[in-house]
Amino acid sequence: MTGPRSLFDKLWDSHVVADLSAGSALIAIDRIFLHERTGAAALNSLAEAGRTVADPARVFAVTDHIVDTRPGRTDQTLMPGGQAFVTETRAAAKAAGITLFDVNDPDQGIVHVISPELGIVLPGCTLIAPDSHTCTQGAFGALAWGIGSSEAEHAMATGTLRLNKPKSMLVKFSGKRPEGVTPKDMIMTLIARHGAAGGKGHAVEFAGEAVTALDMEGRMTLCNMATEFSAMSGFIAPDDKTFAYLEGRRYAPKNVLWEQAVAHWKTLASDRDADFDQHMEIDASKIEPMVSWGTSPEHSIGISDQIPGNAGQRPLEYMDLDKGQRLRGTPIDAAFIGSCTNSRLSDLRRASALLRGKTIAPGLKAICVPGSSRVKREAEAEGIDRLFREAGFEWRESGCSMCFYAGGESFDAGSRVISTTNRNFESRQGPNVKTHIASPETVVASALAGAIADPRELT
Fold first, then answer.
1. Segments in 2-68 forming alpha helices (H)
2. CB 62 within 8 A of CB 114
3. Where is the Aconitase/3-isopropylmalate dehydratase large subunit alpha/beta/alpha domain (predicted)?
4. DSSP state of 250
5. Stretch 344-349: mean pLDDT
6. In terms of domains, do 222 and 296 share one?
7. Domain identity same for 234 and 343
8. Is position 7 within any domain?
9. What pLDDT, in 10s, does the model give residues 220-278?
């Protein structure tokens, strides 16, 4: 292909094994990540069909979705029958010869947190996992997306997947992000303005001054919620921040291979005048802390705004809110910091700094779940866990925890929760639980006030 190319074109073209009919292609898959919720099923189904993993060195598995996060955990889980998911994945991973980050492995954690920590995701690679938030890892200039179990089987057996080529979209965040505004607020603003289906059928490149200013963990948060925008994936061109983050990681190239890799990675950027099927631009300097009011991430407003007059009746009834109502001051029952969106060390640092010397509101349930065992260790070495505990938060082992109800643990039925998770669907965090998604800073400010609060008032 000649002429200017977008980053997506470069990623796609370099992985085409064969062009197929009707705009689809057979795409080479560089990395595959499984978790215990579906990993054993995929591996066992592959074995029952008489097939083997083509290249076990490229396949990884982790216990993160169902595993208990309470201190002193074992294989047992709160979900009835959940222990079988853990033990069967362990047995299937061993039989297939793939790497497993097990319950108490020092590198265990949420898949989209540990893959970057270990240098498994690299610029220019394709990475898939049976989890819709795999797009998180596009922050490294990778093409990463979520798949189903049957697709995981095909990729493990052949190293390829058939894929319809999506359209391309450039989302530019211009301007400078104000103090107190986070990457979570940026992506929630995009979804609120353009809808949960705004990116449907597209691969989205995030760019602009406010994006390049983000550190790698902030970029991961931005890309994490590309799936809430219905995008096939979200990604950011790699730069010196990317290379500095990855250098020395366990699975990253070493020595001369590192130098060769960086030389190639520096070519992974959209060419000047590259064509995109769609463009969107948001002035980051006009963004404020965001909070969701309904049952979809698109149901979100700035902390100073009112619920819109055209808000749907069903989400309002479920959330027990009204049109024209302001969210600030709405009492909450619980607060949650965790998930693949906002559970990294920088998230916990910022949140704990706001907690220093303060205590959460009486009667409030508050939980902090680090995104990986490494994050937990590093946070404890800095005394971050002490700040959370002294403020009244529970401090947990790493995992997905109460991001969703599949692990067997939930908040009290009907309670109102403010959470750093990425989804606020009905009963996502327990029966009839009303979830407001927001940044770690907004969650902390609300936990201290006992009601939804503006974090800028704490600084």
1. 7-13, 39-48
2. yes
3. 9-450
4. T
5. 98
6. no
7. no
8. no
9. 999 999 999 999 999 999 999 999 999 999 999 999 999 999 999 999 999 999 999 99
